[in-house]
Amino acid sequence: MTRSVRQKILLLLLSGLALGMTCSPKRYFKIVKTIPRAWNEIDRHELYRAVREFHQNRLVNFIEKNDGTTEIVLSERGKRRALRYKFDEMEIKRPLHWDNKWRIVMFDIPEKRKQAREALRSKLRELGFKEFQKSVFIHPFECTDEINFIIEIFGIRPYVRLARSDAITNEAELLLRFKLD
After folding, report:
1. What does pTM read for this prediction?
2. Which one of 89, 116, 146 terminates a domain?
3. Percent helix, strand, coil in the chain (nearest 5)?
4. Structural domain containing residue 136
5. Which CATH number is 31's domain given?
6. What confidence score (pLDDT) does residue 120 get?
7. CA angle 164, 82, 140 (to 5 degrees)
8. pLDDT below 50 — which residues of the chain?
C-alpha cells in the first residue's frame, strides 16, 4: 500500500473529527463536500488493510457501540500524524481578486525555541510569504487559518502576532514581488 493511500485515509479520519468539532455551517459543508469523492477513490481492500495497520501502530482505536457497530476513531498519535500530513500539503489559495489588504506575521521567539523559530521562517517562505524584516513576514492573501495551524503545530502561540493592513510603505515593490496589479 502506498504512502499516499495511508495519508489520504488518515486525513479522511481527521476530517470526520473536524466535522464533529466544527461550529461553523460554512466550514461543515466545505468539509462534507470533499469527503465522498475522496472515499470513493480508495480501494476497499487497501482501506481495510490500512485500518488494521493503523490499529497495530496505535493510530486508531476501535470503539464497540451498544447497537453492535464498531466505530473507528483517531488516537492522539493518529491525530498528530494526520496533522503532520496536512501541514506538509498546506498552501495559501490565491483568490480571483485581491482585497488590497496585507497579512503580516510578526514574531519574537526566544533563543531557547530557536528550532521552532527557524521552522516557522522556513514554512512562511514555503507558503510564499516575503520577509519584510528579520521577524516580520508579509503576504497579500487571507491566511489566518493556516498561520494559526502552523503556530499550534510548533507550539509558539505566545510569541507570534498577526496583523492586517490596507497600506504599507514600499507597497509598489511588494505588488511587483507578489505579481499583483
Report:
1. 0.58
2. 89
3. 55, 15, 30
4. 102-177
5. 1.10.10.10
6. 93
7. 20
8. 17-22, 28, 36
